[in-house]
Amino acid sequence: MSGPATPAVGELRREQLLNAADRVVQREGPGASMNAIAAEAGITKPILYRHFGDRNGLIRALTERHTAGLLTAVRAALAEPLERRDLVERVLDTYLAGIEARPQVYRLLTHPEAGDPTGAGNALAPALRQIAEEITKAVQAQVDLGADSPLISETWGRAITGMVLAAGDWWLDQRPCSRARMVQALADLLWGRLAAAAELPLAITPPSAAEHEPDSPLVQD
Amino acid sequence: MSGPATPAVGELRREQLLNAADRVVQREGPGASMNAIAAEAGITKPILYRHFGDRNGLIRALTERHTAGLLTAVRAALAEPLERRDLVERVLDTYLAGIEARPQVYRLLTHPEAGDPTGAGNALAPALRQIAEEITKAVQAQVDLGADSPLISETWGRAITGMVLAAGDWWLDQRPCSRARMVQALADLLWGRLAAAAELPLAITPPSAAEHEPDSPLVQD
DNA sequence: ACAGGGGTGTTACCTCGGGTAACATCGGCA
DNA sequence: TGCCGATGTTACCCGAGGTAACACCCCTGT
Fold first, then answer.
1. pLDDT tens track of chain B, all 221 residues?
2. Does residue B132 sit in helix, strand or coil?
């Protein structure tokens, strides 16, 4: 009787295991142990390893699952036929709404850790790198940047992703304002308000760089 | 003959231990084990723990040591009496030059990992948070942002830091261009070039959002 | 009816890394 | 002389990732 549409039989258990892992991560944050996840699923570790290979595999599967929604949403927002400024705000709001919906799981996205001894440091987790690529493509397709377009687009893709990541993380942690205002602040930054704003009449601007221990060498030694 | 100016006697050993730790991290990247560091220093683990409490303490000490230079440099750059655009470029270049000088150690800055079960996720490591604060202060002091200045300044501080972090990390990894061009690309972004650039004549812009598996739900479920 | 094979499950174990307790030593100093 | 503090050691604990070997259950083909 069970629908023949569901692909493989084992896929169901895999989903259930991911559900359990999801619950644990929601409760304990990333860094939940394999034992804890196995216990939540009512089973023991080796089964997890059979399904996902290693911890990274589990985390990756879990992440991709959640990322799919966010990535799809961002992609869709990027493709909307809006005025550019509106488009930027739309994408920002989409992203913030996404991470707001599931804070705990969102932490997963940002955790490359899992110590890769390769030395190649990725400040952006793979999930976020996909978003960076989407932004890159969108910029390259919609903005005239002259001859250096590929280079600039990719730089901006990474830069914007990192910017929203850091800002969003802070916002999620502190909740200093509404989502709408956050979107405004970020869009304003991206929109050149830093360039356009008036100079402040450097009133009582004490040189904050002086009152500091001078014993540390400069950046080059 | 040893100068009586050096504060406590134990400080020397601490420095030596940090030097050893530094060497190991340079060689093996972050995630180097305490055993390895102890071996490099020619001693055993408990001594490290006596000096630094735990691994985080060691890493923090190591990081602060290197951060001091970068932070001082950035602070100094932020305080220079330049035209605003030049100032932005100056700061960007200072940061990129700093991370370029010591890639391995720089990875340390970006690794908050060390699993804190507190759940408070910090996309920015403490070292970077200091830079974010510097930028916040500078923006607040030098740019007229109206009534919401505190909020916007802090948002921008985090945002810019995250932006430069992600872009710098990518640049360090791929080396797609010279430092100067990277500075230009980032400064342009910060300078509103995204807003100012001409619209591309959406020539052959296929809707890239369509050709994708539609099975994943949107961001809200 | 019986032999398999794939999926599910278990216990018990290994390894490695962070972290600690307890003990030994050396140098100065009242 | 006896105390104290810093330096050092060996040996251990614990938790977490990861694996080997064994057991069961059910479905299917001969």
1. 433 444 456 678 899 999 999 999 989 888 899 999 999 999 999 999 999 999 999 999 998 888 888 999 999 999 999 888 899 999 999 999 999 998 877 777 776 555 444 445 577 888 889 999 999 999 999 888 888 999 999 999 999 999 999 999 999 999 999 999 999 999 999 998 877 776 656 554 444 444 444 344 434 43
2. helix
Instruction: State whether A195 and B84 contact (CB < 8 Å).
Output: yes
Helix (H) or strand (E) holding B32: none
List chain A residues with CB under 8 Å of B176.
Answer: 151, 154-155
CATH of the domain at A129: 1.10.357.10
CA distance B76 to B78: 5
Calculate the angstrom distance between C1' of C9 and CA of A48. 11
Nearest CA in chain B to A157: B167
Domain count, chain A: 2
Strand ranges (DSSP E) for chain A?
A: none
* Domain containing residue A39: CATH number: 1.10.10.60
pTM above the 0.85 mark? no
Q: Do A195 and B78 touch (CB under 8 A)?
A: no
Classify B212 as helix, strand or coil. coil
Shortest CA distance to A195 belongs to which of B79, B83, B185? B83
What residues of chain B lie within 8 A of the CB of A158, using their CB?
Answer: 166-167, 169-170
For A27, the domain range is: 11-53
